[in-house]
Specification:
1 helix, Translation Initiation Factor IF3, elongated, alpha+beta
Length: 78
């Protein structure tokens, strides 16, 4: 699956919707765990790419979380 923070998409790509994932922790492991969860949700929708991905890391003392948000798209051959 292609993952990008850019919002560029092919003209023939179909937007399937926004996907969101959030896990406990704020470190590199939590980022990869969150990305895996996000990718799994996008694949369940039939997506072949995630675009415009955004990262939010909350570091409040009582609730450290890593969250990702992206647009799931299905890229098709032109």
């Amino acid at each position: 699956m292609r993952v990008s923070t850019l919002s560029d998409r092919a003209a023939a790509a179909i937007e399937l919707g926004v996907v969101y994932a959030s896990v406990e922790g704020v470190n590199e492991n939590s980022f990869h765990e969150c990305l895996q969860e996000l990718t799994h949700k996008a694949e369940a929708l039939g997506a072949t790419a995630l675009i415009a991905m955004q990262l939010v890391q909350s570091q409040f003392q009582w609730n450290r979380r890593t969250s990702l948000l992206a647009t799931a798209v299905k890229e098709t051959a032109d």
